[in-house]
Structure formats: structure tokens, C-alpha cells
Amino acid sequence: MAIVTCHNCGYDLDDLARCPKCGAENPHPVTYQSGTRCSICDLTNVEVSRANVKYHAAMADSYDRDQPHFKPENQEQVKIKLLALGSRFGFDRLLDIGCGTGFVTRHAQRYYKETVGVDVTRKMLHLAPGSASLILGDAYHLPFPSERFDVITAYSVLHHLQNIEAVASEAYRVLKSHGCFWSALDPNAHFFYYAKTVTNLSAIQLDTPQNLKPVLEWEIRSVSEVKTVLRERYGLEKEVVDLAEFHKMREGLNPLALEAIFRRAGFFSVDVRFDWFLGQGRVLHEKGEDAVDAIDGWLREVLPLSAPLYKYLEVTAVKL
């Protein structure tokens, strides 16, 4: 494992002491992130990055154990996806943006000639296994020449970013012609909207979500009580969670808006797919894969009406 600092200025994002672009000491965020202050929330991507470092550093020691995407059935799905991407776009070089403790890189290094991971949290990188090259760096300024990678992945990452469009543009820049960007496990705005609506109705009409069916109660609590759960488990302030889980705390990601972002970045083909229906894990363990396939197939037949029943979004974007 090789961990290096920013290629441009030796910047250590653990304390945000320097600018990742120009190396200035303790810069004002707008000075070196001009154009990235959000017109709606008035936040810069540096403020959100700072929160993500604190957030993920607090979670790092138990991250692999606590996060549901490390369950064997999900890891198997990701391995299948990595093989499919390599078969179509090439097994030469893969870059994983927001690699964390190496959820993707530990599998990708088995298939790709060169696997590289980038993340802003040093503590997460130190816990990543395997031989992939791991770089402490900022997704907004990827330290690579243009047209270098066959495949870029970003697993459960986009919703942590204040400026997805800037990162999509960087991904487009470092992808080879006919290369592919793939992301998954980002919150579906349709699900979040209806889950919060049910929560509000429960509070008014049913007194408590406990009156709901167990599977629905679990899914709703996963949305409505994120800040409380993380504060109690990791000692994180609500404000840190609010910034680190940036789009999850702001109603999730709209699939049409997400498609438009990647098209503006230059991608020729963009497919945003709904993924992981409510209760899918329970159906898998209790009824098996055939039941999952049957339910998923039916729900896709009745899209877009079934869109709120999917928790996550998956993006596949191809560069000409």
C-alpha cells in the first residue's frame, strides 16, 4: 500500500491546513475553490470535505464491520460488476474515487493490471488491505494526466460531495476514450421523499412509526434517524453528519438531475438505474435469489410508478 499526499502541494486533508490546488497556508475557502460555493446552501466543497474527513475518521476502525455493503452478498455483486466493466472497457487501469478502507480496490486489484484509490481521509486509507496504490487526495483535483483510466468507480460516494458536477468533469478528464464511470449505492430522492412523508403521517395519525410493518419501520428509521444513530454510535455532532452525508440529508439524488450532470460533464451515454428495493436484503435471506429477481423484475415493469420503492441509484456513464 502506498499513501501519498496531494501531487500539487503536499496538502494534508486531515487538517485542511493547505490548499490542494495552490499550497497556500490556511486559505479562505473561496480563495482557492472559486466557483464551487453552492448558490442554494452557501457552502463550499472544502467545508463539506472537512466534515467528511471528521465523519469517516470517526467511523474508520469499525467501518468494515458496520457498513451493510460489506455483507458477502453485496461484495459478490460488486465483484461481478467489476468483471463486467473490465470485460467491456478494459482491465488495464481502474481508479476508485472515495476508496475509503478499500471496499472496491480489494476486489479490483484481482482483475485489473493497475488499481488506484483516492480518498480524503488518511485514517481510512491506512486500514485498506491489499496492494493497490492509495492516494490521499481530493476528488475535485485528481492527480493524474488526462485519459489514463479504463474504468472509474465511486461506490457510495456521490452523495458525500457538495459539487458532483465538478467531480464528474474530473472523472471525464482522466478517463480514456471509450472508458466508463460507474457509481452505486447513492440515495434515491424518490424513496427519501416518500419515506419522510410516511414518517410525518405516522407522527400525526399513528403516534409512532412503531405501528408500521417491521420492514417499513426499519427502512423509514434508516432515513429519519441517521443523525441520532451516528451521534450515539460514533460521537459525531449533528452538523458534521449533515455536511458529510450531504445529499442524503437533502432529500437524496434525483435520477434525472444526476443524468443531466454527467451529460454536461461530456459523457456520451449515461444510464441512471434504480437499485435495491425496500426489504431486498430480507427477501434474499428468507426467500432466496429467485424471489429477489421476481420482485425486482416486476417493479421494473411498472417504472416509473415503482421508483419510490428503490433506495439507491446506480450510474453508468461512457465517454466517447
Structural notes for this entry:
It is a single chain. With 320 residues, this protein is an alpha/beta fold. The chain has two domains: 2-189 and 248-318, Rossmann fold (3-Layer(aba) Sandwich), CATH 3.40.50; 190-237, no CATH class. Helix content is 43%, strand content 18%. It has helices at 29-32, 45-59, 63-66, 72-89, 105-108, 122-126, 164-174, 189-206, 214-224, 226-234, 238-244, 255-264, 280-287, 289-301, and strands spanning 2-4, 93-97, 114-119, 133-136, 149-155, 175-187, 269-277, 310-318. An eight-stranded mixed β-sheet has the order 1-4-3-2-5-6-8-7, with helices on both faces. Strand 2 (93-97), helix 5 and strand 3 (114-119) form a beta-alpha-beta unit. The two termini are 32 Å apart.
Please outline the helices and strands.
Elements: E1 2-4, H1 29-32, H2 45-59, H3 63-66, H4 72-89, E2 93-97, H5 105-108, E3 114-119, H6 122-126, E4 133-136, E5 149-155, H7 164-174, E6 175-187, H8 189-206, H9 214-224, H10 226-234, H11 238-244, H12 255-264, E7 269-277, H13 280-287, H14 289-301, E8 310-318
Parallel strand pairs: 1-4, 2-3, 2-5, 3-4, 5-6
Antiparallel strand pairs: 6-8, 7-8
